[in-house]
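Intended use. Records such as the BK channel entry shown here are meant for training and evaluating sequence-to-structure methods. They are not intended to support clinical decisions.
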Amino acid sequence: MIIRMLIQRVSRIQNRHIYSALLVLFIFFSAYLMRLIEPETFDSYFNSLWWVMTTVTTVGYGDVSPTTTAGQIYAMTAVYIVGIGLMGLVIGYIVDAFQVYRKKKEEGKLAYKSEGHYIIVNYTKRSKETIEELLHIHDDKEIVIIDEDLDKKPSTDDRIHFVSGNPAEHRTLHQSNIKKSHAVLIFAPDNMKNYSLADGQTLLIATTIEGLGKEENFEVYTIAEILNDQHINAFQHADVDEFVTPYHMSARLIAKSASYRSASEVFRQLTSSRYGNDIYSIRKKKHWKTYRDAYQDLLESGATLLANGKEVGIAKKLNEPIPEQSELLIVCDQETYEAIK
């Protein structure tokens, strides 16, 4: 009855910092007082502090305990009631804090603090596959999903994080730590059947991202999914780095497969890290002066030089020098890539 009344009175105060401070003060005061009351039982302040801590946490090893009447009375009236009560309240606050943190994280209300991550705008069927592929390719990368329609994080994977909000708002972009991101991938929403409206929304997000980068002086690599390739010019004016037109690409791939058999299989291997060879990016080696040097050296290692960034026509310029900051794309398996990089 007394404990219940005490808890009800204390619970009216809603400041967890006060309770924590009171608990710390109570523990040290009790340790000091028990040392004064029973100097023979508690021969040092550390021993008295040890007894108070094991008591208020209800561990109770029993290796030391009060032996005098005064000490036992203080233990029963103060340590057992007040100390254990305060400790229970503080532990309850700690548990509540973890639950609140977890709930906010699941609902996408917390800011992402790490760096070098991929930002996925809009969680769709296609973006889900992209996330799986990115996680499979990069063991050290994390994903941040921005979506204003999701109620909670769509995955239990610890490497996937969620930010709830409008991706065309600066607050949401800052919450995803866009300044420190590796790249931003914008996907067209699944629920829009009108390609012009979907591309218009994607363009708005891309323009906001590029505008924020110019305003706050940072660069971000942006890739946009475009449903109608007639809208590419608009995205080029918005300084979007790359464009992907899934429907047109799939239609053209089917035509290529019909004309040149096995073309789809080659494309499947090159676009998936789970099958056959894959596309990798490497830096120019110091002893590579021309594209021919790189081509021959890579060929001997079991890799094929595919392109320099967006420039695919390497075969026509084998004798030309390779720019120092080139990002060369090669085709090989994982083992060969690990040996080359």
